[in-house]
Design a protein that fits this description.
Layout: E1 16-21, H1 36-43, H2 58-61, E2 64-66, H3 76-92, E3 96-101, H4 107-117, E4 122-126, H5 146-152, E5 157-162, H6 167-176, E6 180-182, H7 183-188, H8 190-201, E7 206-211, H9 233-244, E8 248-254, H10 264-285
Parallel strand pairs: 1-2, 1-3, 3-8, 4-5, 4-7, 5-6, 7-8
């Protein structure tokens, strides 16, 4: 099914590619992430297309190309290959790949491609959860193990906004000296955490994996595993501006669980995609 971001026709020189990844295989609580890409795209025309921070329209400055929402294989490896193919195609024509999940497992498809294109790739991981289990429900490739698989590819990761973990993950981050900016640290010293973030992304290409449950449930209740104590909208925008100023080469947005009665979270997700495009356009214009 073809539904374009903002309801606009694909721009002939689009610099941003929206890649729907309606994959759900291992969701552990509230189901429905498979429906998120379509629902996020459906609500996107309801926002204003002109930005109030930088006074520009990213659909004009950058342009969007939206892939069709297509059924993915239920087999994780096959689904990851299908996602990877579109990411690779987007890179080949100079488009910024922005994958719309789906569960967090989809990140691995992007990273496999981007690691080949950018050998020194890093990942900034915004999430309530670490997703660092070795195995989950007898499977190696799941939403709860995805960052462990990324780490095993030799990709440095900084996890941000974390506020829950299991004992296995705790032992792993101690052993590996794995860097975490906890949600409690963001609340206690936000500016200091931004400096840590700047230091991590400085100099090298990086990918942003944005799990919507990094938000406090008061902002984005429609996620599979909501956790209290998350970040707010303005904190996220400040984080995004720091990231876009550096060498951001791709992104995904995952784990929205649509609610047909109250599509607030789908709208927040669409607005977040819009704001990333605004910041990319502002950087291109030299005003960010």
């Amino acid at each position: 099914m073809k539904i374009s971001f903002l309801g606009l026709p694909d721009h002939p020189q689009a610099k941003v590619a929206l890649i729907p990844a309606p994959f759900e295989y291992s969701t552990s609580w509230k189901k429905g992430t498979k429906e998120a890409p379509l629902e996020i795209l459906k609500v996107s025309p309801n926002m204003e297309f002109f930005d109030e921070e930088y006074f520009l329209d990213p659909s004009e400055k950058l342009g969007f190309f939206t892939y069709s929402v297509e059924e993915l294989s239920f087999d994780p490896e096959e689904a990851l290959k299908e996602i990877a193919q579109k990411v690779e195609e987007s890179l080949s024509v100079g488009r910024f790949p922005l994958v719309i999940g789906g569960e967090h497992t989809v990140t691995l498809g992007s990273i496999r491609v981007l690691k080949e294109a950018f050998p020194r790739l890093k990942v900034v991981h915004l999430d309530a959860h670490l997703d660092l289990r070795y195995r989950y429900n007898q499977s190696l490739i799941t939403h709860a193990t995805v960052m462990r698989r990324v780490y095993e590819l030799g990709v440095p990761i900084l996890s941000v906004g974390i506020r829950t973990l299991c004992e296995e993950e705790y032992e792993f981050i101690k052993k590996e000296n794995y860097p975490v900016i906890w949600a409690k640290d963001l609340k206690a010293d936000f500016k200091g955490c931004l400096e840590r973030l700047k230091e991590f992304v400085k100099g090298g290409p990086f990918f942003l994996s944005f799990d919507m449950d990094v938000f406090d449930p008061s902002v984005a209740p429609g996620v599979g595993t909501p956790e209290p104590g998350g970040v707010n909208w303005w904190e996220v925008l400040d984080i995004l501006k720091v990231l876009v100023k550096h060498r951001l080469v791709g992104m995904d947005l995952v784990e929205v669980k649509p609610d047909p009665v109250n599509p607030n979270t789908e709208y927040v997700a669409a607005k977040l995609i819009f704001k990333v495009a605004v910041y990319l356009a502002a950087k291109h214009e030299g005003i960010l």
